[in-house]
Amino acid sequence: METNKLETLLQEHLKADQSRLDRIEVKIDKLQDTVIALTRVEEKLVNLEIDRTEILNTQSRHAEKLDIHEYRLNEGAVTLRAIKALFWLVLSSAAAILVGLSIK
Predict the structure, then answer these.
(1) Angstrom distance (rounded) from CA 61 to CA 54
(2) How far apart are CA 58 and CA 66, in angstroms?
(3) Which residues of the chain are under the pLDDT cut of 50?
């Protein structure tokens, strides 16, 4: 009878240990899932940072191009003002010559 009792105690102890090991295994599985999720989040963050850097580089290139176009437009405005002044000078000279010829 003593051996039965001992076997029963041993079986109960083994069941308790098995239950404890099962709970530990479940916790380890949850930790594994969490680590995998964190790894995926980290990958997404790295990709977002790469995309952000590319966008900033593209924006910088566009800003440089806009600066070049602005400079060219300003040069064109100066040239246009000079052409306007020359046009009005020629027109007023021609009008003065016509008036001078019609008076004689």
Answers:
(1) 11
(2) 12
(3) none
